[in-house]
Every structure is written in structure tokens, then in C-alpha cells.
Amino acid sequence: MSKSIKITKSKFADDLNIKSQKININGKKFKTPIKSVDMSNLRRDVSLNKNIKGINEVFRTFNKNSLDEYTDGKKNETENIFKNLSTKTRKTLSNEVNMCFILYESPNLPTEEKHVNFLMNISYTFSDATPLPLLSSFFDETKEFKAQFEQYMEFMKKCIESINRLNNKPIIGIIPFDIPSMFVPILMDFYYSYNITSFVYDFKGRVYVGNEGKLRELMISLNDLDISDKTFLYSTNVNPGKMLKGAPIIRATDVLIYNFGFDVIGDNHIRKKFPPDLVQKMKERTGPKSIRLFNSQNYGYYKTMDLDVLNDMYPQDETSIPFETFKVDNAKSKQCQKLFNTERIGLEASKYQEMISENIQISEYLSTKNILREQDIKGLIEFKRQIYSSL
After folding, report:
1. Which phi and psi angles does 47 have, rounded to 5°?
2. Could you tell me how far CA 110 lies from the centroid of its own chain?
């Protein structure tokens, strides 16, 4: 049976559906809302603001072929997986929570017990709370959904049973983006029957806009199960937003996810798929590449090759990541872009904690971010109103 994540001092903002609470996972504690750090980007020569620390994530992707190679002994799991993940987790602090996500990319679910056990062993070993697998290619819109949903729940059951063979950690259920809103309560009831009360919502590389009905059903299900103040909600694979027409700026709508009741925002690990001819052109392209940095002053992602534009918005005195890092196109530059954005969003989350504690209207704070649209904030206010007026 899954252990529970201990949650105390849960408090929602007055105006929006954003909350702050204290999380205790097997003795490791942190406060939400919080931004998770992708440990694949952590570097010994780059330090992050200590106020954003608390939870880290790592993703490991498999498909049918790679899974078969490992379970049949054709590939060395010790060298290729366990040592690699151990190296990444050693970059984190001992009092921080780690979560290892398994992303399975094949359209057919693993059916053999050895496949399920292999995947769950990896996730369990490198997680303080074990998330069930994410599926990127299983749900097919051309097929009957109900039959696929039943297969999905049967697969989740096998994964839960695999973990519970020898388990001393909480299990975290997955709510896929592909699940229609009317199936969300069924899935939540299924997880609850296994004492699973904390969840990851997989946005699958999409923005939240248009997904409010599913998120509303999630909130209603939590209330019906009487666990609204006892649940830990983690969002992953949220799209950062779309480019504004005629401007090198993206509205940072991913940061707004906290206002749908999520404790954690993870990174987006879903790669956008392009036509083969475009992929080839991108590989052949030479010259400087665009850099994308988050500006917490206006909630815009600046995506440009113009270093002067980025330098003007760069908070030199608020980060230990030197701007000179981005003048060279190399692995460190790419990692530091992601670490910088994580740090800036994490500091915003830290501000939210303080505002919730002091009963400050977060919607008023968001209204000062001029890249956001007025309708963005009105939508968040309306979501809160609809949730609580129906309870």
C-alpha cells in the first residue's frame, strides 16, 4: 500500500486558486508553490538561489525497442541507466526531494511483467515519491476512447502492484492530458482506491488554455474525495506559451499554472515534432541560435539572437549566472538558459508564498506584468469563482 505525502498548513489565496502548503516526503520538507529543478541541467560550476531549492526532477525515455534491449540483456542497465542517474542525483542536496519520471513513447503498452517491473524499479530507485509512467503515444483519437481508458487503468494497476512488491514510499498518480474531463473523476477514484492522493498532471507539451474543463473536474474530484487540503499536485510538460506576432517575446503562460491549484511546475520535456525536411534544414542552419530567457518583470520569455536586447533585461545583481555564459553556443549555455529560467520562476513562486501568507491579492500583482493579457488574469479569477461557487 502506498504511503501518503504529509501536508500541513494548506492555505489558498483569496482571489485565485493558488495555494501554499508545507510538504513532507519521507522526512524531506519544502514549501509550495515551488519550481522543480531539472537535475540534468545542474552543474558544479553554477549555483542557484537557495530560496528556490526543494524539489528536483529527471526524465528517462524508453520505447519498445529500448525496453526490450534492456530486459533481454542486450544493453547494460548498470552503465547506461543506473550509473547515469546516480551521477545526476549526486548533484542534488540530501534534504531535497527527487523525482524520476519514466516517459514511454510507444503506442502499445508494455504487457510483460518484466517490462513493467524494469520501468518501475528505475522510477522507484531514484524518487522520494514514485510517479507512475507518462505515456506520449498511447492514446489515439481515431480509436474508441473508453477501450483505451480501460487498458490505461489496467496498465496503471500493474505499475502500482509492481511498486508495492516492496514499497516504503508514496506513489504519485498520473493524469494525462488526453483524458476527457468526464473520465477524470473515474481515474481519480481508481487512484484513491490504492491510497494514492497526490498527482502529476501531464500537459503533454500543451498550454493550459482550453484545458480548464479538465482542471475543473480535477478540483471537483479532490473535493468529492475530501482531499483538497491533503493532496500534492505537480504539473509537467507545460508549454511555455506562443510567440507574440511581430515581437520576439512569448507570454509566459506556464507560470500561471500555479493558479489552477498546482504546487509544482516542472519543465517541458516533450520535443516538438517537425516534418523531416524542416528537421534537415534546422540541422544545416549555421550562425547564432536564439536564446530564450524569462523576464520576471513583465512575464515574457525573450527569444532572440540579439544579445543587447537580452542584456538590457538581464538581472545582473539577482543571479550568479553570468550573462557572458550566453555569448557562446555550447552545452553550458543551453543548460544555463534553463537554469536561469528555473531560478527566475522559482523566485516568483517564493514571492507567491509570501503573498498568500500575508493575504495579498495575487491577481493585482499579476496585473503589473504587462506581457500578460487582461483576459489571462480575468480567466484565473473566473476559474477560482466557478470552483468555489459550486462547492
Report:
1. -110, 145
2. 24
The answer to whether residue 201 is domain-embedded is yes
pLDDT in tens, 269-314: 987 665 666 555 555 565 557 889 999 999 999 988 889 999 999 9
Residues 6+ apart with CB under 8 A from 162: 113, 116, 117, 120
**In this structure, is the dihedral angle defined by the CA atoms of residues 383, 384, 390 and 391, taken in order, positive or negative?**
positive
Q: What is the pLDDT of residue 88?
A: 96
Amino acid letter for position 329? D
| 283 contact partners, CB below 8 Å, separation of at least 6 | none
pLDDT tens digits, one per residue of 136-147: 999 999 999 999
Pairwise CA distance, residues 325 & 347, whole Å:
21
Mean pLDDT score of the chain? 93
Contact (CB, 8 A) for 259 and 362: yes
Cα-Cα-Cα-Cα dihedral sign, residues 302, 304, 305, 308: negative
Residues 80-97 have a mean pLDDT of 96
Task: Spell out the alpha helix ranges (H) of 113-230.
Answer: 113-125, 145-163, 184-192, 212-224
Number of domains in the chain: 1
CATH number, domain containing residue 129: 3.20.20.105
CA–CA–CA angle 343, 134, 243 (5° rounding): 50
Contacts of 76 (CB under 8 A, 6+ apart): none
Residue 1 lies in a domain: no
Q: pTM of the predicted model, to two decimals? A: 0.94
Within-domain flag for 133: yes
Helical (H) or strand (E) element with 259: none
Domain that holds residue 65: 6-389
pLDDT band at 245 (very low <50, low <70, confident <90, very high): low
